[in-house]
Amino acid sequence: MDRGLILIGALGRMGRALQEAALAAGQPVVGLVDRPELAGTPSPVDGISVRVCASWKDLVAPSRVVIDFSSPENTLSLLLSAKEHRMPLVIGTTGMGQAGEDALREASRHVPVVAAANYSVGVNLLLELVQKAASVLGASAYDAEIVEAHHKHKKDAPSGTALMLANALAKGRDVDLAQVASYGREGITGERTTGEIGIHAVRGGSVVGDHWVNFFGEGERIEIHHHAESRRTFADGAVRAAVWASDKVPGLYTMRHVLGFD
Ligand code: NAD
């Protein structure tokens, strides 16, 4: 069987961007998978000749890498079948909660798994900057608030990226995020407590993804902002991760590994 990429969720917003990114990177796309009722649909992207399949089970081969940006239920089942299919996985689906964490760990015992709530190279650099800023500024003199904006179709909130940023912030301050996070305040909340990390989601229109990390001090405010203009930024990063993962030993990896930060 020929080597190449299998894209799951191939007819979705990210699936289409992934097909374009694979073409641009010269990576062969050997399989497209989407919901069974869409089987047989041709690719909407010029230059991709394969049609949509109902299941990755028809495409299993040792030299293939799977990129999955679909739905939590579908991604969980793919992860829990890793022992069976043995193909490296690049997972983009968000909103899987604790079950997702557990399934990622289980799959990574059998195959290399790259998991990232955001595959943009810029956002992954942002995580480094936020951790550094949080560590230098400290919790007592600067109040940290994260705001994220996404399109109206997004199903989970706050975004996986906002949570990654919040975790980077907490790491920089050497605190446990669960102890200090304050999600979308409402009502008589009382005064802001020192060390709190505020996290807020707004939704609307066609926004691809914006994240702001604010450090509010007395007399100054530092704002770190990332603006994604197109899904291609995530897709290019995911294809890069797939190429990287193709020859790795089983394990759970992030974009830090792919980009060589670790
Ligand atoms: P979308 O709704 O446009 O596309 C999802 C696709 O998955 C659809 O074509 C749908 O038919 C398909 N799908 C659903 N259930 C399936 C199943 N059982 N089997 C096969 N295919 C199935 O959504 P999207 O905007 O492309 O986002 C997809 C996921 O990727 C979401 O979880 C989103 O949050 C996430 N995402 C992650 C990143 C990142 O960088 N990690 C970036 C953007 C989006």
Hetero groups bound?
Answer: nicotinamide-adenine-dinucleotide
Order of strands, widest sheet: 3-2-1-4-5-6-12
Poorly predicted runs:
none
Q: Which CATH-level-2 architecture of the largest domain?
A: 3-Layer(aba) Sandwich
Indicate the percent of residues in helices.
Answer: 25-40%
Q: Report Rg.
A: 19 Å
What is the structural class? alpha/beta
Major sheet size, sense and barrel closure: 7 strands, parallel
Strand percentage: 15-25%
Beta strands, count? 12
Elements, N to C (H/E) = EHEEEHHEHEHEHHEEEEHEH
> Number of helical segments?
9
Could you name the CATH homologous superfamily of the largest domain?
Answer: NAD(P)-binding Rossmann-like Domain
CATH topology assignment of the largest domain: Rossmann fold
Mean pLDDT: 96
Assign an overall shape. elongated
| Terminal Cα span | 33 Å
The CATH first-level class of the largest domain comes to: Alpha Beta
List the helices and strands and how they pair.
Layout: E1 4-8, H1 13-25, E2 29-33, E3 52-53, E4 64-68, H2 72-80, H3 82-85, E5 89-91, H4 97-107, E6 112-115, H5 121-137, E7 143-150, H6 160-173, H7 177-180, E8 181-183, E9 197-203, E10 209-216, E11 221-228, H8 232-245, E12 251-253, H9 255-258
Parallel strand pairs: 1-2, 1-4, 2-3, 4-5, 5-6, 6-12, 7-9, 8-9
Antiparallel strand pairs: 7-10, 10-11
The structure holds nicotinamide-adenine-dinucleotide.
Nicotinamide-adenine-dinucleotide is lined by residues 8-9, 11-15, 33-35, 69-71, 74, 92-95, 116-119, 234.
